């Protein structure tokens, strides 16, 4: 069986490693930090129902389908609390009919609640709300989902190596013939000779591809999130409108996270949360739930989305939320592929599509079975 | 403001040392953000675990100026002493590298008890069922702080016993009612004192003991 090197230990990387390991490939995954240390670990933890991107029916349908699959293959990882889309202003109310029509088109089961019912369910919502729609959102602890995929990959003989950073590729005759890696635990550099390389480093995909003389059209798009010291609701609170700054509050475990902003940077390693973004999150979050302004801020953090960028998009909201597989054979390197875009919720699907691509190249006949195979518990990652 | 970050370094090649990094940081920045900046701009071989950056995943537990904390929700200005912050790996675990530890000493025990991770919540409307993840972030801080977990390798440990205690519906595996289970606890309550999410493992263990003594919990096997 061929050797595949997966670079990147976020949700996409571990899902790719799992998909290919299940098909029988010999997979090694390397990650420069700990698993989930990049973007994936720093999501707000929302299992999308698809409703947030309902303007694009295909992306929404994709999210909802994956939402259902993930709950089926790993019910122990997700809070089954649902979400609410809440109209606060007249502008929000004007979005309601479009929202319901699009949900219907995408096949996402939603239900309109009365103001009283919504406030009985979630007393911290703004009492002045004008309309509420219940949707099948969920929440999760990102690290535990990543570890479950990694554990599942390990059970199928994948080798997972955190703290191993790719420092260079040797390209000869249109192929990557070896990859140089720094093992930070020793520390020492070593070389591996994979048959195929998958670049699943998300917002860092271009930085990694450049090491092989290649380019990836990724737009690192950071977003600021503010974690509050206390859980103010059970269901996810969304603003009933097109996506904007500070329009979502995600509750998981004992905390609530207000998110998010969006802008575009060149280097995802050089991002700090602008102070005005924090104030904006508190102000906008308070419109959804007035209690937000009275809670202590526990943490402020930034996560850089790996959006697919083409043309001159300058705000992260203008670029696609779907994903792209970049076949570098077009640039003259036949055994190197990058994957960017997507969402945490759609990572399994991304891995399946990438797995199809790699399998075709390597002559692996087995089809993806990740949609129907139960995930291993995350704690098995630490065994063996 | 200038801080002096002192990091205990351990590598697989052996040897231990403390490295000092002079860093510029705002007092309300987290210790984790500062450690990450050092790893990106100062020493790329500095290893540590981190993921959520807001106190729910439990990855970034470390000993900060002698006290176990989650680095992501610890503001550097609140813990620095004379501008100095010393960071070390959690105690009671094998060190993988620098601040990263191998948590198999904790998670490896899960197969003995297969705990549920979801907590059922009372709903406000009869027809709505809620489930949430337990607040325990499985960070390992309670193991690091516990005098028994540090000295008795078979001990199941504070967080695992607490999760089982809260999720057990009248039945527990025999290992819970054994020397490695609730009876190993010496009631030091360091686990509860250090727990970053107030999960109170010590109190949960004591409650489970009382229920076992009263015969309110059936022991399987």
From TrEMBL, chain A:
The keyword Flavoprotein applies. The keyword Oxidoreductase applies. InterPro entries: FAD-dep_OxRdtase (IPR006076), FAD/NAD-bd_sf (IPR036188), G3P_DH_FAD-dep (IPR000447). Coiled coil: none annotated. Pfam families: DAO. One of its GO terms (biological process) is glycerol-3-phosphate metabolic process. SUPFAM superfamilies: FAD-linked reductases, C-terminal domain, FAD/NAD(P)-binding domain. It comes from the Archaea. Residues 4-333 form the FAD dependent oxidoreductase domain. Keywords: FAD, Flavoprotein, Oxidoreductase. GO terms for molecular function: glycerol-3-phosphate dehydrogenase (quinone) activity. Its cofactor is FAD. Belongs to the FAD-dependent glycerol-3-phosphate dehydrogenase family. This is FAD-dependent oxidoreductase. It comes from Infirmifilum lucidum.
TrEMBL record, chain B:
GO terms for biological process: respiratory electron transport chain; tricarboxylic acid cycle. The lineage of its organism: Archaea, Thermoproteota, Thermoprotei, Thermofilales, Thermofilaceae. Pathway: Carbohydrate metabolism; tricarboxylic acid cycle. This is succinate dehydrogenase. Keywords: 2Fe-2S, 3Fe-4S, 4Fe-4S, Iron, Iron-sulfur, Metal-binding, Oxidoreductase, Tricarboxylic acid cycle. Its cofactor is [3Fe-4S] cluster; [2Fe-2S] cluster; [4Fe-4S] cluster. InterPro entries: 2Fe-2S_ferredoxin-like_sf, 2Fe-2S_ferredoxin-type, 2Fe2S_fd_BS, 4Fe4S_Fe-S-bd, 4Fe4S_Fe_S_CS, Beta-grasp_dom_sf, Helical_ferredxn, SDH/FRD_Iron-Sulfur. It comes from Infirmifilum lucidum. Residues 1-91 form the 2Fe-2S ferredoxin-type domain. Its EC number is 1.3.5.1. It is an enzyme of class 1 (oxidoreductase). GO terms for molecular function: 2 iron, 2 sulfur cluster binding; 3 iron, 4 sulfur cluster binding; 4 iron, 4 sulfur cluster binding; electron transfer activity; metal ion binding; succinate dehydrogenase (quinone) activity. Residues 126-155 form the 4Fe-4S ferredoxin-type domain.
């Amino acid at each position: 069986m061929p050797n595949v090197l997966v670079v990147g230990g976020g949700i996409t990387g571990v899902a790719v490693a799992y998909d290919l390991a299940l098909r029988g490939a010999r997979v090694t995954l390397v990650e420069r930090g700990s698993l989930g240390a990049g973007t994936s670990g720093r999501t707000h933890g929302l299992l999308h129902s698809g409703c947030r991107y309902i303007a694009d029916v295909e992306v929404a349908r994709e999210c909802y389908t994956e939402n259902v699959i993930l709950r089926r293959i790993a019910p122990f990882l997700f809070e089954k609390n649902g979400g609410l889309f809440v109209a606060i202003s007249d502008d929000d109310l004007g979005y309601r009919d479009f929202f319901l029509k699009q949900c219907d088109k995408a096949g996402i089961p939603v239900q309109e609640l009365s103001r009283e019912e919504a406030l009985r369910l979630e007393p911290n919502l703004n009492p002045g709300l004008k309309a509420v729609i219940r949707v099948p959102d969920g929440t999760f602890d990102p690290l535990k989902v990543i570890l479950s995929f990694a554990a599942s990959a390990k059970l199928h003989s994948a080798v997972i190596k955190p703290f191993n950073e790719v420092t260079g590729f040797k390209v000869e005759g249109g192929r990557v013939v070896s990859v140089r890696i720094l093992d930070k635990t020793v520390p020492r550099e070593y070389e591996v000779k994979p048959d195929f390389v998958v670049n699943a480093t998300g917002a860092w995909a271009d930085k990694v591809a450049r090491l092989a003389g290649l380019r990836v059209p990724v737009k690192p798009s950071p977003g600021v999130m503010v974690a509050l010291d206390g859980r103010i609701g059970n269901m996810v609170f969304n603003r009933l409108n097109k996506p904007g700054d500070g329009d979502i509050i995600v509750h998981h475990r004992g905390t609530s996270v207000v998110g998010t902003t969006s802008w575009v940077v060149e280097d995802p390693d050089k991002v700090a949360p602008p102070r005005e973004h924090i104030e904006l999150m508190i102000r906008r979050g308070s419109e959804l739930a007035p209690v937000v302004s009275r809670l202590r801020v526990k943490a402020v953090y930034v996560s850089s989305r790996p959006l697919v960028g083409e043309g001159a998009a300058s705000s992260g909201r203008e670029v696609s939320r779907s994903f792209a597989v970049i076949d570098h054979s077009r640039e003259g390197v036949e055994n190197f592929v990058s994957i960017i875009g997507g969402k945490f919720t759609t990572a399994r699907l991304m891995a399946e599509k990438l797995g199809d691509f790699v399998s075709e190249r390597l002559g692996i006949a087995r089809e993806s079975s990740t949609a129907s195979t139960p995930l291993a518990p995350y704690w098995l990652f630490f065994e063996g | 403001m200038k801080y002096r970050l002192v990091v205990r370094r351990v590598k697989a090649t052996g040897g231990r040392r403390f490295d000092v990094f002079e860093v510029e940081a705002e007092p309300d920045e987290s210790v984790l953000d500062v450690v990450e900046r050092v790893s990106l701009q100062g020493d790329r071989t500095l290893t540590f675990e981190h993921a959520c950056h807001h106190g729910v995943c439990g990855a970034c537990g470390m000993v900060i100026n002698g006290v176990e904390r989650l680095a992501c929700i610890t503001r550097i200005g609140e813990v620095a002493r004379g501008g100095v912050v010393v960071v070390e790996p959690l105690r009671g675990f094998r060190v993988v590298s620098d601040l990263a530890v191998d948590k198999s000493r904790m998670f490896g025990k899960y197969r003995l008890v297969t705990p549920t991770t979801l907590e059922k919540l009372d709903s406000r409307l009869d027809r709505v069922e809620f489930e949430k993840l337990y607040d325990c972030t499985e960070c390992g801080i309670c193991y690091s702080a516990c005098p028994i977990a540090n000295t008795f390798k078979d001990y199941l440990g504070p967080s695992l016993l607490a999760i089982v205690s809260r999720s057990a519906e009248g039945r527990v595996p025999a290992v819970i009612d054994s020397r490695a289970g609730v009876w190993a606890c010496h009631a030091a309550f360091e686990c509860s004192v250090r727990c970053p999410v107030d999960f109170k493992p010590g109190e949960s263990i004591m409650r489970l003991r009382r229920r076992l003594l009263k015969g309110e919990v059936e022991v399987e096997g």
